[in-house]
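Researcher: I'm preparing a figure for a lab meeting and need a structural model of a single chain. I don't have an experimental structure, so a prediction will have to do for now. The sequence is pasted below. Please return the structure as tokens so I can convert it later.
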Amino acid sequence: HAADESGPDWAALARAADTLVAYMAVGRLQEVCSALLAAGLPADHPALLVENGTTASERVLRGSLESLPERARAAGAVSPALLIVGAVAGLATVRDSHHGGGTEHAWLPTAAPGLVP
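Model: Understood. Here is the structure written out token by token.
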């Protein structure tokens, strides 16, 4: 947050970073995604919401800046959660065994071309 309570400079953030991570973003997910869209990021820009990350109850919702708020609302997403926005969010794949092969699926990042996993 800005010191004067005006909020972040979304346009500067949208221009300056390849990846944005917002902590505890569930309560303001629609506002954050809308602000990034208004700042010029495309509607299909990849986004992930990681709820209860690194725990047995981890859930990850994958979408775009346009679709993620509704997907999160429909899934009943709650804090604690991280919002990850950027191309890295589009490098996610499903791996069923993350939590012992249960019914929950985690989206785990894969190595980008040319990078060592």
